Amino acid sequence: MSDVDGLDDLLARAAERPRALARPELAALLAMDDEAGIQSLFDAAYALKVKYCGKRVAMRGIVEAGNVCAKDCYYCGIRKSNENLQRYQLSADEIVRLAELDAKQDYASLVIQSGEIESEAHTRFIEDVLRRIAPLDLGVTLSLGEQTEETYRRWKEAGAARYLLRIETSNPKLYATLHPAGHSWERRVECLRALRRCGYQVGTGVMCGLPGQTYDDLARDIEFFAEMDVDMIGMGPYIPHPDTPLGVLSAKCLVPSAWCLVPSAEQEKVLSAKCLVPSAELKHEDLSESNAPSTTAPSTKHQALTLGLKMIAVTRLHLHDVNIAAATALQALAPDGRERGIHAGANVIMPNITDTKYRRSYQLYAGKPCLDENAGLCKGCLERRLAAIGETVDYGHRGDSLHFSKRTRGSASLPEPRMRGSASLPEGGAE
Ligand code: SF4
């Protein structure tokens, strides 16, 4: 017997047509904690994943192009105030070489991500990289933060097809507790709109299990994805980083539940760390609300993982045909976290192809896995892991968002699986 009344009917209604559930129903699914009910949720979401994407997983090799960032988000390991890491920026030649490696792996898609830099020099640098990798015929996703619409347009014209800009939370008040003054939730939303106008496949996402976050917030996040009509979702559990104000607060018991997510090797470092932000600026009183019973704050790794998986499953049930990534952060909570993400409804995995010498300097959260595995090892490892759950890597296919194809082609029917370079489904032409 599930703790959600009429669970079977609710799941059937959600599977029948997209956007069928009201916010309280989304929140009830997210808050569910009986194992049989959660498994039914995962099974329903996975059936939809198989219906829309088959038993195939799209790969995007990630290049972490640089960890210099002008922003200071309280939760992020590469925030500009963190002095405990070495800053780096890959050269254009290095990024092109990694893009060639990605093409050789036959992933057919590439993600270039870095901290946020807004300057003409940076815009031109990325344009140059995009033009140089264009002959590789990869589906290129950028994740380079907030920029002007003109910059987004230039990068689109230079060859980028997709852009991922996470809103982190759709609740502006919660957003304000996670960012210093001058980091504007409204600008982030406006950037998502600008990306849409420029013709990108647009992706966004949130963190799950944030201090002060409620199930209603997460349900609202899923409604936000629907309202923004996004094509791709990338989200994951919030994992505290020891060199961040929010990580330190987690350890110092203001947000005790998040402490369980910090790997034991990092815990001593966290306890000896100082909060890097004046207390008046970081809203302690808001964060301490996380002890209220309605919040999502997990008290074990298992709970954090389950919350992340439920968020994937409920998002799949509500939106049906979007691309959803099984975030690497899931693997930080359990060795098979990403495979479980696929079985909860995700259809994309993003293996890191950055040279291992840079990976320790790009830790957005503590305990990030695969720091020492090169791209070849990652490929073999993922292949085996996916085969073990009855899925295959969709080599040679870009794995574009079905939702994007439908909204830009005005077609109600689902397109055939897309081959890279296929004349029947132009990548750039449809956008
Ligand atoms: S979350 Fe993004 S914008 Fe914020 S500090 Fe980290 S890299 Fe910079």
Characterization of the model:
- The protein has a single domain (17-407), classed as Alpha-Beta Barrel (TIM Barrel), CATH 3.20.20.
- It has helices spanning 7-16, 23-31, 35-53, 92-104, 120-133, 149-157, 172-178, 185-198, 215-228, 245-251, 264-272, 284-288, 301-319, 328-333, 337-343, 356-359, 375-388, 402-409; strands at 56-59, 61-66, 109-114, 139-143, 162-164, 201-204, 207-208, 232-237, 323-326, 348-349, 392-393.
- The chain starts with 6 loop residues before the first helix and ends in a 22-residue tail after the last helix.
- With 431 residues, it is an alpha/beta fold.
- Bound molecules: iron/sulfur cluster (SF4).
- The site of iron/sulfur cluster has 9 residues, from loops.
Helix-strand sequence? HHHEEHEHEHEHHEEHEHHHHEHHEHHEH
Low-confidence stretches: 274-281, 284-294, 411-431
CATH architecture: Alpha-Beta Barrel
Please tally the β strands and state the result: 11
Which quaternary structure do these chains form?
single chain
Radius of gyration equals 20 Å
Number of domains: 1
**What is the CATH class designation?**
Alpha Beta
What structural class do the secondary elements suggest?
A: alpha/beta
- Major sheet: 8 strands, parallel
Under CATH, the topology can be stated as TIM Barrel
What small ligands are held by the chains? Answer: iron/sulfur cluster
3D shape = globular
What is the element layout, followed by pairings?
Blueprint: H1 7-16, H2 23-31, H3 35-53, E1 56-59, E2 61-66, H4 92-104, E3 109-114, H5 120-133, E4 139-143, H6 149-157, E5 162-164, H7 172-178, H8 185-198, E6 201-204, E7 207-208, H9 215-228, E8 232-237, H10 245-251, H11 264-272, H12 284-288, H13 301-319, E9 323-326, H14 328-333, H15 337-343, E10 348-349, H16 356-359, H17 375-388, E11 392-393, H18 402-409
Parallel strand pairs: 1-10, 1-11, 2-3, 3-4, 4-5, 5-6, 6-8, 7-8, 8-9
Helix pairs in contact: 1-3, 2-9, 2-13, 3-13, 4-5, 6-8, 9-13
The structure holds iron/sulfur cluster (SF4).
The site of iron/sulfur cluster has 9 residues, from loops.
